Amino acid sequence: xxxxxxxxxxxxxxxxxxxxxxxxxxxxxxxxxxxxxxxxxxxxxxxxxxxxxxxxxxxxxxxxxxxxxxxxxxxxxxxxxxxxxxxxxxxxxxxxxxxxxxxxxxxxxxxxxxxxxxxxxxxxxxxxxxxxxxxxxxxxxxxxxxxxxxxxxxxxxxxxxxxxxxxxxxxxxxxxxxxxxxxxxxxxxxxxxxxxxxxxxxxxxxxxxxxxxxxxxxxxxxxxxxxxxxxxxxxxxxxxxxxxxxxxxxxxxxxxxxxxxxxxxx
Length: 266
Description:
Helix content is 71%, strand content 0%. It has helices at 3-24, 55-59, 62-73, 82-112, 115-141, 145-157, 161-164, 168-191, 194-215, 217-220, 231-256. Helix 1 (3-24) packs antiparallel against helix 5 (115-141), helix 3 (62-73) packs antiparallel against helix 4 (82-112) and helix 5 packs parallel to helix 11. It is globular, with a radius of gyration of 19 Å.
């Protein structure tokens, strides 16, 4: 494993562990979360163990791990020589590490149906949406580690909105999605190609499916198509797809971007 890949995975693991430890202190005990099988359209199967009680909603989380593994082993490229390639590799592998962590966390939430796992699932969603923003800012303005730290730190802190209002998490998530799409459009306009534009459009469509299918989980269960494979299941399929298209969009921009003349390699 390359040093930058190991560093990226260490950073993701460290922040994830700190978030888990913070959740278990009870600081987010007042956050409104949905706990219980009644919040899902997929009926639990009593004869199966808790890890597979809702088999489709559980097993779909394997896709996040497979996605993370695929992108972790993929080669990163960027104009400017080995130094720029290492930076591109770090950006890519942090995102891949997030996918590797997010799948098991969501599976635990589905299986355990406890407040801490639900809170952790919500909280870790935010920095995932913030990372494309940070990545695009690096593409626009050059390598700035402090900016990466500031974006992710602000994202993590924004979860405190969930303590202020029952819909605080939804507000924070909506702002994250808007920021990610807006920054992606801005970066596409500056550095994009037809290919990256296609990946961006597919990513936005997948994000729309992720939101709508999840919100309409119970309503969609009235339709035969969504009775076994429910809206929640398909929303996770869309989530994996938007992850994948975000990778394709950002790595494509890494490849086709031209370095600004004033940019110096540090």
